[in-house]
User: Fold these one by one.
Assistant:
Number 1:
Amino acid sequence: MKAIRYHSHGGPEVLQVEKVPRPKPAKHEVLVRVHAAGVNPGDWQIRSGLAGNRFPLPYIPGWDVSGVVEEVGPGSSLFRVGDEVFGMTADSGACAEYVAVPESQLAHKPAALSHVQAAAVPMSSFTAWHSLNKQGRLQAGETVIVNGAAGGVGHFAVQLAKQAGARVIGVTSGRNADFVRGLGAGEVLDYTAAPLEGTPWQADLAIDTIGGPNGDMLLETLRSGGRLVPVTFGHYNAEKAAARNVTVNEVQLLQISKTTLETIANMFDKGDLRVALDMVVPLEETRRAHERSESRRARGKIVIEISR
Ligand SMILES: NC(=O)c1ccc[n+]([C@@H]2O[C@H](COP(=O)([O-])OP(=O)(O)OC[C@H]3O[C@@H](n4cnc5c(N)ncnc54)[C@H](OP(=O)(O)O)[C@@H]3O)[C@@H](O)[C@H]2O)c1
């Protein structure tokens, strides 16, 4: 089968189109004929070596997948050949014509979404859902600040927080302000025009999808007793957090839950959630997709279309 693969860490140029053996589904896995693979920052973080050496080379990138079940592995009972499914692989590999995926990490594709749209959903929406509801313990009526509101995780976090009955403040650059308001943010802070410090909000919860030095500024947007949930690594001054009585959660590397994926699929089918696509490219142009993700300017999601 055709796949994107690399043999050494480096820039987007290490990504090659290659012929590789088609995987066999193991116990409790299904083989998916991939229609589309979603791109996440983790893809280029692993490719460049930033994420360390725990991912064996040669490596096929891609965690998010949407496609059709081609073959059912031993002991698998949840899907049948021909089912349209979406979800997250256990160990990347979605940038290929076929990938084997544990059936526990897949759900039926929402009928309302194309494969390209569905492939954009799993990792980002699950991360947003988990950080708001599980780590952030969001309650209706609370105020949530989403840092990086226009990105893959952020654009779902704004919508999911609004759906949960929260007042949402989105932090984004001015060019994305209308986009973020359209997702349900009551207010937007253009971080290129004004610093986060000194904002009048006393938010209950902050979701940080950006990290870096901005973390300390986010602490100042929270009320005493507020919670900060980072989905990526940032600098949060422990003394400042303690002085402000703000709890800072640990970054968690998440494994998707089937139940949550089904809940999210249902929200799409009911029209309660939508996905924004920044860029869709064919498999042969995966380099371009990585470059775009690495630019940190994507509005919504980047997807690689593999077959129609
Ligand atoms: N813990 C996990 O399991 C998990 C899962 C998924 C993702 N992550 C991590 O979460 C992070 C976000 O992922 P993502 O997919 O949302 O990234 P992304 O889609 O690449 O984020 C791009 C967005 O970031 C915004 N942005 C860039 N700099 C900003 C700043 N200083 N302040 C506010 N917004 C800014 C950009 O908007 P503007 O152009 O308007 O600035 C753009 O829309 C990544 O580091 C990723 O590795 C972790």
Number 2:
Amino acid sequence: EIAIAEAFGLDYTPPRRVSGQPTKAGLILLAAGSGQVLHSLGLAYFEKAGDEMVAAVPSYGSIERSWEEYGGVVHRVPLKNYTHDLDGMLKKVHAGTKMVAICNPNNPTGTIVPYKDLEAFIDAVPKSVLVVVDEAYVEFVADDNYQTSIGLASTRDNVISVRTFSKIFGLAGVRVGYAIAHPDINQKLSKYHYNNGISLYGKVAAEAALTDYSHKHNSRQLAIDVKQYFEDEFEAMGLEYIRSESSFMLVNLKRDARPIGRALSQRRISVSDAERRWDMKGWMRVSVGTKEESETFITALREILTTTL
Ligand SMILES: Cc1ncc(COP(=O)(O)O)c(C=O)c1O
């Protein structure tokens, strides 16, 4: 917690531990991946059948799925120009709304919500509504209009920023994530975590990753370069794509993407079928690889598109 607070310049005092009493949560809550935070958000905020939440579609969708499983109602607001339609989402917030989920940058589109729009949205929702900002891919963002929600989460009592070491730091298998939120919010979530759910090894790896500036810089730069390469190649192939601030990109093959996904898979290249996952007919989501892997993907895609169709 202290290393995270230092990394973001947050004024943080670890909660005092009193022997024999449950540990109180502070501004930073460690967890076994950001997935654990998203999961416990559903558990902690869902109270009764019919409780409402608002989310965008297509988006990551993890809280929404558990919310519905518990018997809650999810208002899914379609993206506008592939990004969150905050005005549309605001219209779906009523007295019974418990939570709004914003994935920023969004998975699968890689689009972002500019800070001033996010702040205006948070100002506009009732204080009783928790605004969840999932920033799993935040470290990849290059757009100057972007600012993290940490400043909002550390000063308001209805905003939570959810972060992970799984993406830019490449530690997905180690399972370390965290939330920054008012201690009362983190306290509610921590009831569903056994201790913080992470091992000593996870803690050590995460702490080392936080200050491994060259790894972070190189991974980010690689993503920026590869996305530029993808854009150039997709344009040359006449394919539409969505400019992404994340580590993946959506491309519109304008034909059934499934046989193409299968042909890529036969060459040991794995992509996401955006039709199956997000109902985006003809689209495929490809993640940034090393330069060589990314070139292999483009060469294979070119061949498959010209030879099989
Ligand atoms: C937007 C988003 N949030 C959260 C997660 C969960 O990641 P983890 O639990 O590994 O931190 C993912 C994983 O793909 C994701 O894409």
